[in-house]
Write a structure and sequence with these properties.
Shape of chain B: globular
Mean pLDDT of chain A: 93
CATH topology of chain B: TIM Barrel
Number of helices of chain B: 8
Strand order of the largest sheet of chain B: 7-4-3-2-1-10-11
Largest interface: A-B, 13 and 15 residues
Order of helices and strands of chain B: EHEHEEHHEEHEHEHEEHE
Number of domains of chain B: 1
Low-confidence stretches of chain A: none
Oligomer: heterodimer
Number of strands of chain B: 11
Strand content of chain A: 15-25%
Number of strands of chain A: 7
Mean pLDDT of chain B: 96
Distance between the termini of chain B: 22 Å
Radius of gyration of chain A: 14 Å
Helix content of chain B: 25-40%
Chain lengths: ~120, ~250
């Protein structure tokens, strides 16, 4: 019989996703214990403001300063920048100030989303 | 002071999405028909069609401002306007340095041609002009202001390629001279929208891609003369100059 795992233990942390999907941490190390409860893929910040949910990992190529503000506003678990995009020093500093985890991958949004989806 | 009717967002034959009817002669004729006193020529990421239209406008009594509609790395469209041909050339060099190279496929995107005053094609642009620049919107704004130009995020009420759709709200560090609205936008709603800085100045422009759209949206500048320097003063409300938007 399969043991019933208490719900508490099934929760996926940002740090576990980083390890399992081979992601880079650019900023917000202090918040990598954030729980990831879902995901959202979009490059339109207005769309993310309207439709992302608290606890989502946001997969995007927009590395603008406003990305950090939107992630903070929506209480997202982390921002994952795709296609090898490296955020500017200003964006990293702002993310660190606001405790926003900013991750990176060399993969495109489609393939990294496919990897992360079954993990959450 | 007098009132001048201005449409500061017009494409030409050079924009891939611009109709081949958007020749200098047709643009000036349509602007006269629409009763415009000032127009701005703003092709995607290029200024190369400005000069001939400016000269034609001068002979027909229409003030033509030169510029471009830039596409930033975040895919935000913004109008950039410049006073002189020299600065416009300097900005063209900036565009040449920063345009992400993609070859145009005229069958798919449309032709990108520079034409002379007789509507004859004198150059075809090979690089896809609706591609993005490799620099962000704030960096471009700073470069434009350093050259003495004006920087105006375009059609901010659109669900795509506007600063609000792309970036959620106007970045705090951006210093825009005005914000562009389409003819459908509710001005009062935008004046009270928290995503735009307080006391923002708004303009309505047509974003015309074909002659009959020229002047469909416009702004009225109440100022002394139809010139770039008067326009700049009006944008900051100097000495009672003001902008009146229809609707």
């Amino acid at each position: 019989m399969t043991p019933i795992v208490p719900k508490e233990e099934q929760k996926m942390k940002v740090s576990e996703l980083v390890e399992k999907a081979g992601l880079v941490v650019f900023a917000g190390e202090t918040a990598v214990a954030n729980e990831v409860t879902g995901g959202y893929v979009s490059d339109l910040l207005s769309d993310v403001m309207a439709n992302a949910r608290e606890g989502d990992i946001w997969i995007t190529l927009q590395s603008h300063m406003n990305t950090i503000a939107v992630a903070s506003l929506k209480d997202l678990a982390a921002v994952l920048l795709v296609n090898g995009i490296v955020p500017s020093a200003e964006v990293i500093a702002r993310a660190n100030d606001e405790g926003i985890v900013v991750l990176g991958t060399g993969e495109a949004a489609f393939s990294i989303t496919g990897k992360i989806y079954p993990l959450i | 002071m007098k009132q001048f009717k201005a449409d500061l967002h017009i494409h030409t034959t050079l924009s891939p999405c611009g109709s081949l009817d958007m020749s200098p002669k047709n643009i000036i004729a349509a602007a006269l028909k629409a009763g415009l006193d000032m127009i701005a020529i703003t092709d995607h990421n290029s200024t190369k069609q400005v000069q001939v239209i400016k000269e034609l406008g001068q002979s027909k009594g229409i003030e033509v401002i030169g510029g471009a509609e830039i596409n930033s790395s975040e895919e935000v469209h913004c109008l950039t306007l410049f006073e002189t041909g020299e600065v416009l050339q300097e900005f063209q060099e900036y565009l040449d340095r920063h345009l992400v190279p993609v070859k145009n496929d005229p069958a798919y995107f449309g032709y990108q041609v520079v034409v002379n005053a007789n509507d004859e094609i004198i150059e075809e642009e090979d690089r896809l002009l609706i591609s993005t620049l490799d620099v962000g919107v704030v960096e471009i704004e700073q470069a434009v202001h350093k050259m003495g130009g004006l920087f105006i995020p375009a059609h901010i009420d659109r669900p795509f390629n506007g600063i609000i759709s792309q970036l959620g709200f106007v970045p705090y560090e951006l210093k825009a001279d005005a914000y562009g609205l389409t003819r459908h936008a509710d001005l009062v709603k935008w004046q009270n929208d928290k995503r735009v800085p307080e006391n923002a100045v708004f303009l309505r422009n047509s974003d015309a891609h074909r002659p009959r759209a020229i002047g469909r949206a416009f702004s009225i500048f109440e100022m002394n003369d139809a010139t770039f320097s008067e326009m700049r003063k009006t944008l900051i409300g100097e000495n009672g100059r003001k902008i009146i938007l229809p609707g």
